[in-house]
Amino acid sequence: MTSKIKVDNINKVSDDSNIIKKCGTTTTIGSGASNPIVVDGSTVTIGRCGGTVALASGATQTGFGRTGTVNWDTTPKTSTVTAASGVGYFVDTTSGSVTVNLPAGSAGAIVAIADYANTADTNKIVVAANGSDKIQGVATNPFEITVEGGSVTLVFVDSTQGWRPTDASTAASITENNVFITATGGTITTSGDFKIHTFTGPGTFCVSAGAGPVANVDYVIVAGGGGAGGSTNPGGGGGGGGAGGYRESHCATTSGPYTASPLASSTSLPISPGAIPVTVGAGGAGGPPNVGASFGNDSIFSTITAFRGGYGGMNGPGFPSPYQPQPWQPGGRGRLQGGLGGSGGGAAVFSGQGNACGNTPPVSPPQGNPGGDGDGAPSYGGGGGGGATAAGANSSGGGGNGGAGATSSINGTPTARAGGGGGAASSGSDGNGGTGGGGNATSPGGTGGAGSANTGGGGGAGGSPTNATGGAGGSGIVIIRYKFQ
Asked: Which of 51, 223, 241, 305 would bridge with 299, disulfide CB 3.0–4.6 Å?
């Protein structure tokens, strides 16, 4: 015979309160505020409102936990949100962009975000990882929801991939997966959230990560300056070398609020992962007596070319064939004429030779200016080479001054580059080089001052009445700046 105990309630001895209570179809285990279990038909409730249900140390559970869903917080968020795992958020960007900061990642953590007012196409939702956590395998990689009505569900997988989108709407909802640039090459310095790569010679800008609008760079690219003209005995002054072409961009979103030159384009340069060759142009050689000076050399980064500086005109017989007019030059020129280029070289002694054009080939904003013209008696002077922001001066009572260069703080220090070289004179003062590395002219005899290295400055001319040699142009430079965090 089977033994049975039949009771409806079991009470405590001390205060006669219920330990187990049967009432209709409901059985309650525990009493008062500590009721932990209620069995009502097929429903079992564990814990009470405001209480905690915890597994004992070392215990495991099955059949509980999330199934890839969240509980939605239905209060629209209009300012920065610090998200919690297991919660979905409606984000209202009617009045401006809103950032959602994800919680610290742990395996299985889940967060969902939805565009509340269908305004994400106007004001984006930025979804940022916590600390060094990754999104889709990349650290410091924010999502931007920029599609009207867009939404996304993110699950933290592991430390390798971090947060991964799981829902089918992801591709349509997240239009930008912005990856900050990671790159090597040149001399690297840091200014706040921005890195600056400076190339003073040829090299490679190697990009290992970077996508979306944050993968843009700003730049200063300066070509090698032209060599200056020399002079024979007797004669007059040679023309100053033209500065190397000057190219710059500056967008505050891309590279921060530094002071750029007036020549800076507002359009930054997009880049993609890979190796990007960097060419830094050498300066042109100065002209010995009876031998023409040389062009500078181009500087190139990606799709941007800064064109070589034009050489200064020489004073002397003959004009060797390497310095005859080039196919891209309109018409011929006399032996005294400066060369066309990023900035044009100054003409040698005697007027009427004309100004060698700058900004050749033409770009916008312009990369340089014309050289100055030469003059006859009494100074017998050469014109100054053109600079990035000003033309070389014509000879008038002495050699012409070189044109001024452009000043930019892209590397954190205001620096002038691409000044034209000064023109020399037989009498009167010699021309000074333009600010930004232009060389000063020298007479009588000797060698004109060289353009400063890595400025693209034009060389300073040499002048008679004794044989004189023009100064060499300064080498160019390439500087790249971008946001890296």
From this structure: 223
What pLDDT, on a 0 to 100 scale, did the predictor assign at position 51? 63
pLDDT, tens digit, 9 for 90 and up, residues 286-298: 988 777 789 999 9
Phi and psi at residue 14, to the nearest 5° = -65, -45
Locate 369 and state its tokens: 């200016």
Tokens of 470: 């023009």
Burial category of 130 from C-beta neighbours within 10 Å (exposed 0-12, middle 13-18, buried 19 and up): middle
Cα–Cα distance measured from residue 479 to residue 417, given in angstroms and rounded to the nearest whole number = 12
Strands 143-145 and 43-46: unpaired
* Cβ atoms 125, 115 nearer than 8 A: yes
This prediction has a pTM of 0.67
118 CB-contact burial (10 Å; exposed 0-12 / middle 13-18 / buried 19+): middle
pLDDT digits (tens, 9 = 90+) for 96-122: 999 999 999 999 999 999 999 999 888
Tokens 């505050």, residue located: 252
Q: How confident is the model at residue 322 (pLDDT cuts 50, 70, 90)?
A: very low
